Hints:
Helix 1 packs parallel to helix 6. The chain has a 5-stranded mixed β-sheet, with helices on both faces. By secondary structure, it is of the alpha/beta class. It has a single domain (11-171), classed as CinA-like (Maf protein), CATH 3.90.950. The longest helix is centred in the last third of the chain and has 21 residues, at 151-171. It has helices at residues 11-28, 42-48, 53-56, 66-73, 89-103, 151-171, and strands at residues 32-36, 57-62, 107-113, 128-135, 138-145. A hairpin with a 2-residue loop joins strand 4 (128-135) and strand 5 (138-145). The mean pLDDT is 91.
Amino acid sequence: MTQTLPRDTGGDSVAMASQHVLDALCEAGWRLATAESCTAGRLAGALAAGDGAGSALQGGFVCYSKDAKVRMLGLPPETLQSSAGAVTETVARLMAEHARERSGADIAVAVTGVLGPSCDEDGNPVGLVDIACARADLTRHRRERWPEAAPDILIRATILSALGLVAEMLAEMPSSQDPTIVPPLG
């Protein structure tokens, strides 16, 4: 669990990390989906701004509320009824797994947490974030506990952490694992 912010959370760092992930996805012939709560689509937006996004980004789900996580991703409602609510390892893992399955992507990343300006309805503190990345054979989780900072800094730090987890999962991908072929619509 991280307790310090990355040194550089600026836009250039996010763009560089996004491009690194896009390049790795294109090289593997894979497509990525996102499921975002506290980053509210900014992770998908960062990826969409990079070269190769049309080939590597399958799409994204913005599921800010608990109800959206149930309706859009199909999470079982009981997973959101613990004392921690939506900010848990279980919820992050399920968000990533369901986003991958529902989108037809080869790999998906999910982010759920509290990035300010105040704690959530379940009392989770600002800076607590659960991130998960799922591919067909493996789901990984990372928990961040960022120190208090402005929400925009926490959002960029979270995006960088999520992109880092995706990059790690892609780097350790078995060479025999073939990408899912998603036929075009129409």
